[in-house]
Structures are given as C-alpha cells and as structure tokens.
Amino acid sequence: MLQTRFTKLVGVQHPIVQGGMQWVGRAELVAAVANAGALGFITALTQPTPEDLTREIARCRDLTDKPFGVNLTILPAIKPPPYAEYRAAIIESGIKVVETAGNKPQEHVDEFRKHGVKVVHKCTSVRHALSAERMGVDAISIDGFECAGHPGEDDTPGLILIPAAANKIKIPMIASGGFADARGLVAALALGADGINMGTRFMATKESPIHQLIKEKIVANDERETELIFRTMRNTSRVAKNAVSTKVVAMEKEGAKFEDIRELVAGARGKMVYATGNSDEGIWSAGQVQGLIQDIPSCAELVSRIVREAEAIIRARLDGMIVHPAAQAAE
C-alpha cells in the first residue's frame, strides 16, 4: 500500500484522485472510485440546481460508505450560477473534502474551512499554487499542459511544473495532467507530488456515465488526438480532436471572436456527445493521455492495477538499479 501526506489528509487508501469533470462526475462513477479506495469528486455544476446536488450526494452515499468529495468550479459568466447555494448544499450534506477550481475562491475557502471541510485547489502554475496556499487551502492539485480542460496559458508540461511546484509548496500536492497508469504514479511521487489526479482515464471505465462509443473512442485515439481551442482568447482549453474542434481552431486562426464560435462550443452540444455517442456532436474534453489508455476496466480493476504495478516498479525495477559498493566489490 502506498501512503502519502494526501492519503492521510483525506482518509483514503490510495493516492489516486478522480477530479471534477463536467457531465461526467456523477454518483455512479464517484462511488465506484471511492469503493476502489481512491478519492472521487462529484461535479457540482453538472447538477442543474443546488437541490439536485443535494440529491446526487445522497445517491452517492447510497452506493458507498467511503469518503468522497465535491468539485466546485468558479468561472466567469454573464449569469453566474448560485455558487453560495451550491456551497451551502455541500456543507449541509456533510461533505468533508472539496475540490475548488477557477477564479480566486477565497470566500468559498473561508466558508468551507469554517465548517471543517478540507479544500483541494486546482491550479496550472506555481504562482497560483502559492497564492492558493496563502489563501489557506489544505492541498493543491497542479495541472500540467498535457491535461484535458484548462491548462492555463504558460504551456508548462508536468515534468517541469510538478517539481517546480514541489520546490515551493509546503502543503500536500496532487499531480494532474497526463496520468493513466502505474508509471505515471511512480513518476509523480518521484517528482515530489503526493498522488495523482486522473480525468480522461476514469472516463474510460465501466462505471463512467458516458456513452460506450465515447469510451471506445478514447481507447482508439492516440496522444495526438486533441486540439487547443480558445488560444486566441487566452482561455485555452484542451479538447478531443473532432470535426467541431478542428473547425473552431481554423476559425480562430482567421480571427474569429467568441460570438462567432459560441454555437459550436455550447456546453449543451458537448453534453450530447456523452449521451448519444456521436463524438462529432460537440466539444468534449480529453487529454493527451488518450495515447496511454488501452482498455475499459472497472474502477476497482484500474485502481488496484495501478497500485499493484506501482509497488512492483518501486520494489523491483527501481530498487534493482541501486548497486551497493560492497556488492559491486564482491563481483
């Protein structure tokens, strides 16, 4: 068993996290991750109202007695969701760990911590991680450029970002972006992280609440099958390469503004991808890690395999590379 500062902080068995994913982070997936001994997060804003979130948390509790959390992502919007009401639903439901993401969550951090809720803040740079640490969060999830969703604007890959953050961050840190297997977990621990976050990898599991054809598409895709949209708007998002995302990138190169592509990138269209299995229906998030995903296991199979193989890499492969002077002399 691999025990880290993060597993002790949140009370889970394995240093593996399934972070918030819009339209994907639902009770059936989160409970399966929790039952596997890892930490899953329900995505608050996937639920249409705070009342729906309360019901989804209760549904998850019916499926597991293990710890799980809720993701609350704060994004700029013309008509923002009622964040304070979602926050209240999380607190009143007795959730003990929350993943925050997005713009300066100070008021949410203060309110969660006042009620004894641990806060893991997701960020894409060392400076934002340090800012979140000063804000009083309990742990950081740091996203490298490889990740699905928003990788920030610095284009710093995990191999640099994770140790750079580990050099400066004192609280536990989860590495995110590009993780799918035991090799990634061992690498993240070696780079100074206390565990890994996996999004795309958990999408391709039996319990993931998305269409089977999309799971099979993730398996079929390689590491080149993503696009970076909204680059020209400095709101970069890594999504699966398809007819829609390729068109958006081409339009941006020709100077398109958000109003010109609004209909193409609408969230309602992306939601339909997961419902219908048509991967060209709209924009949907996926990382470069697709190139490392070759099957669709249950969450229990996936987590146990990663932990088992990680222990084998550490004990056999890495330990076997250390040659002690006495043994070398005897040869």
From TrEMBL:
It is an enzyme of class 1 (oxidoreductase). Coiled coil: none annotated. Its EC number is 1.13.12.16. GO terms for molecular function: dioxygenase activity; nitronate monooxygenase activity. The keyword Flavoprotein applies. Transmembrane segments: none annotated. This is Nitronate monooxygenase. Keywords: Dioxygenase, Flavoprotein, FMN, Monooxygenase, Oxidoreductase.
